[in-house]
Design a protein that fits this description.
Blueprint lengths: L40 H12 L4 H9 L12 H4 L8 E3 L13 E7 L4 H15 L5 E7 L7 H13 L2 H13 L13 H9 L5 H8 L2 H17 L6 E4 L3 E3 L4 H16 L6
Parallel strand pairs: 2-3
Antiparallel strand pairs: 1-5, 2-4, 4-5
Helix pairs in contact: 1-9, 2-9, 5-6, 5-7, 5-8, 5-9, 7-8
Length: 274
Amino acid sequence: MKRFALCLTLLLPLAACQKEAAPTTATATPPPAATSSTPSAAAIAAAASTQNGGGPTAAATDANATTATPAADATKTAANTGGLVAGTDYAEIQGGQPYLPLNGKVEVVEVFNFICPACNAFEPSFEAWKAKLPADVRVTYVPAAFGAQWLPYAQAYLVAEQMGLDAKSHTAVFTAIHATHALPGEGQPPNEAAIGQFYAKYGADPKQFVDAMHSFATDARLNRAKQFMLASGVQGTPTLIINGKYRVIGKSFDDMVRIADALIARERTGGAAK
């Protein structure tokens, strides 16, 4: 049975919610601190295969090809990179495209899941940062489904977003899972009925909401999210991706938004380092 390690918030700069592929990796070097849940590209591909009955071979190939820029590029001076170092602060996504292009706006994707403790810890600072973004920058949420406990919340986000309920319920879902425990968290069995009842408070019919979680449209959108994560080289949550071109690395939450700000500025001035 797949399991999720607890968030080590007292030991790491960021929480670590790791989906372990095998028990032999307990002493491995931890992943970059900016990501909390760290399933491999193969794990994400396996999740996509389970959902769709086959493995997304092309997307997995893209994920393997999506790596940080070569070490030589990481030595670029701050003057040439807007203060950022490729391979340290961010990874370039070869051939990357925005998840939802819209009228030339710069897209910031947050790959997340409500059940992820690190995403919960990041939420307040991310929301405060998001509120200060320029009008030509848009935030898009892409839900990760790294296992049985994550899947219902990924589906629920997509349904709530489709129904226009996410803007008023997004933070409340985190609270219900991590603070009041009104919804199941890590290590607890998923409860779709409880999720439906939760969204009833925002105007949804509980049964229709749960049915929509299993609809063809939701499955298609969930698969699209998985393909985007594979192509972008996402290895954990929360992860920020700027305009489909850059995956933020960072060493802390503050570092993540600092790097995101610099990459957004780069995209707003033509998309090239000056």
